[in-house]
Amino acid sequence: MSRTIRLGTRGSPLALAQTRWVMGRLTAYYPDYHFEPVIIKTTGDKLKDVPLAQVGGKGLFIKEIEEALLAGEVEMAVHSLKDMPAELPAGCVLAAVPVREDWRDALISRRYGSLAEIPAGGRIGTGSLRRRVQILHRRPDVEVVHLRGNVDTRLRKMETQGLDAIILAAAGLNRLGLKHLPCTFLPAAEMLPAVSQGALGLEVRADDEEMRRLLRVLDDPPSRVAVTAERAFLSRLEGGCLVPVAALGIVADSQVTLEGMISDLDGRRLLRERLSGAAVEAEAIGRRLADRLLEKGGREILAQIYGRPLVP
Prior knowledge:
Blueprint: E1 3-9, H1 13-29, E2 33-39, H2 43-46, H3 52-55, H4 63-70, E3 76-80, E4 92-96, E5 105-108, E6 123-126, H5 129-138, E7 143-146, H6 151-160, E8 165-169, H7 170-175, E9 183-186, E10 200-205, H8 209-215, H9 221-236, E11 245-252, E12 255-263, E13 270-278, H10 282-306
Parallel strand pairs: 1-2, 1-3, 6-7, 6-8
Antiparallel strand pairs: 3-10, 4-10, 5-8, 5-9, 11-12, 12-13
Helix pairs in contact: 9-10
């Protein structure tokens, strides 16, 4: 009999599409194994209409999956890496970062082809603080409407709530086969992505050598370097869903270039910086870039948001 490997996942259409992608790749490499998804409902799934910034905390979309992993109820967990806190719980490791999907955000609109085209007073839907502040920084004359739910729900709300546009991750649209939607991909200059946006994180128990060995074939070194720099940046800023933080790492010729952003909650004071260095120093580059932004005023921004000084 073939060995059954259980993959913990959320139950959204996007999460299941991502998990099926992982299962397909693993089955191609290991036909003697049987891979099956185990759907686990997370805190973030239960709080469907509450802004995540109001809920606070970290790991809202992964905590219950990690608990199942540590309890031996699943052998590996499939996450959107952007949902994973910079620090993993004791006993867990990030075993693989598969090749990254498109990191960009997409403006979905039936009438407008860019942020600049939306008229003053226009309404743009998003549930992301990061997107909200970057929109308002460029377009303080528009209204940003809170919007949560899976992709189908957000597309429906765009029509029922009379929104001029919504912003979604390009990676999600691609994975769901929704490339036909009327969308414009936003460049980094307009919209830096969430840390690790477009990347998957495959998590296993630290002592499970079998799973770590199986997943090595899916680990993509350039993708891992990029997200390592981004996640180090996030960690240094103690980032979570309360804080508008964005970062993008680009790897080329054994070098990584990291661009990062932090902002106050209304987008009036938005700080961006860029730093390059050797790919092997990705983690250090992430921390150094965060320190640059802290020195340029980020410390005051974060102290105001957190209601306490940032740890030196």
